Amino acid sequence: MRRYQSALFAGLIIASVVAISSAWLASGDPDGLERVAEDEEFIQHAEDPGYEILPDYTVPGVDGAISTALAGVIGVGVVAAIGLGAGYVLRSRRLGDT
Known about the structure:
By secondary structure, the protein is mostly helical. It has helices spanning 5-22, 32-39, 65-97. The longest helix has 33 residues, at 65-97. The radius of gyration is 19 Å and the shape is extended.
């Protein structure tokens, strides 16, 4: 893992910079599926999810584009943790099989 740490760190930094910078480009308009539901007039049948971790790609209690940027960084961290965890489990299984 040590030899890949700098590449991993650089990848996380780049992904975080992209998430932060694209937060200011986010549109307040509905996404494609929601737009079709509005155009075809069946949006009233939509139901809210049972829970929302980051509702509408924002962090509750934080306002504006900063909230969206923070949600993006949280998303980068969650995806990185899941990916690293899966890689660790798969690698340890492979090493245990030999």
